[in-house]
Specification:
It is built from twelve helices and eight strands. It is α/β, with parallel strands linked by helices. The strands form three sheets. Strands 1-8-7-6 form a four-stranded mixed beta sheet, with helices on both faces. A two-stranded parallel ribbon has the order 2-5. It has a two-stranded antiparallel sheet with strand order 3-4.
């Protein structure tokens, strides 16, 4: 894919998975901050809800605006990448941010809407200028008369091209939660997590899954869900007072997660295709040399050179956002 994009005419090709690792750094920090405050009896907003799915965010903004303090303020990988490209990368390249055109390739049609949000830009220049779907990329490759099967593999460009197994599983339901737990566990305990798989949060039925994860005596009550009908059921439970004392909730609008995104190749209702995509991501994760976001050398370098630490003032400015009540769907 990197080779094809260069032949289409892109000057630099980076990996969105890098930004997924970045999302985990900020989101896991926010989760630990909220849970710690809760355990200490301080006022905080729980359960923390994931924020990387723009269709879900639009849903809560329009249907449950009284709970906009619950989603994490961390931007999605697409939005984080655009922001870092228009700041960190632009400075390294010595060009003005407005002379840098960022194009994302996403499995999601709602990413087009997300890229247009006024919060995700500066002085009229959006962080992500154009968002296309995976299907649209396939059509573009064909239109450019590129024989994809005969291309040699090429690496992504640096410094935003390195990723871990944790970022790969973002594309499946339960993956964001599992990736966050890998980093949260080591941050919370100061110990090395030898077994990085959290099977309890791996959603297989595309419904609502509740998991209880113990971190050195602290039990986190977690929910993993995909599909907006299930999201509504969860929000109604929250309205009833969060009787199950959930600490964190992952919600994806598409059943199964981004592997079943609106911009993906059609599967015509064949769920075996979704299962195959899910297994491909898990296999890719298992084959990665680094499987925890906080161990990504490129992420470490970004914080050392530019952001300081997760949750810093600069990180909040570039990597976080806010939500507002919307009307209609």
């Amino acid at each position: 894919m990197a080779a094809a994009l260069r032949r289409i005419g892109f000057d630099r090709v980076f990996d969105t998975d890098f930004a997924a690792d970045l999302t985990i750094m900020e989101e896991s920090t926010e989760l630990l901050d909220r849970v710690t405050k809760f355990l200490n009896g301080e006022k905080t907003s729980l359960p923390l809800m994931t924020s990387c799915c723009p269709a879900w965010i639009r849903f809560i903004e329009s249907q449950y605006p009284e709970y906009l303090d619950l989603p994490s303020s961390a931007r999605s990988p697409q939005a984080m990448f655009g922001s870092i490209a228009k700041s960190y990368l632009a400075e390294k390249m010595g060009i003005d941010r407005k002379d840098l055109v960022v194009v994302s390739v996403m499995p999601c049609t709602s990413k087009k809407y997300e890229s247009s949000r006024s919060e995700l830009g500066e002085d009229g220049d959006q962080d992500t200028n154009i968002s296309i779907t995976t299907r649209e990329l396939g059509a573009l490759i064909r239109r450019m008369n590129i024989n994809f099967d005969n291309l040699e593999d090429e690496d992504f460009d640096e410094p935003l091209g390195e990723s871990t197994g944790a970022s790969v599983i973002f594309g499946k339901a339960g993956g964001v939660m599992e990736a966050a737990l890998r980093t949260a566990y080591e941050t919370m305990t100061g110990e090395t997590l030898e077994k990085v798989e959290f099977e309890d949060v791996r959603e297989a039925s595309y419904g609502i899954k509740v998991a209880h994860v113990d971190i050195k005596g602290t039990t986190l009550n977690l929910v993993i869900s995909s599909g907006l009908a299930n999201a509504r059921a969860i929000m109604e439970e929250i309205k009833a007072g969060n009787p199950n004392n959930y600490h964190a909730i992952e919600i994806m609008a598409c059943p199964g997660g981004c592997i079943n995104g609106g911009g993906q190749p059609y599967h015509h209702g064949d769920e075996s295709v979704l299962f195959a995509r899910q297994q491909a991501l898990l296999k890719e994760d298992e084959g990665k040399a680094i499987r925890k976001s906080h161990e990504n050398p490129a992420i470490k370098k970004l914080y050392e050179e530019y952001l300081g630490k997760p949750g810093s003032e600069k990180a909040h400015h570039l990597l976080h956002t806010h939500y507002t009540e919307k009307t209609g769907y």
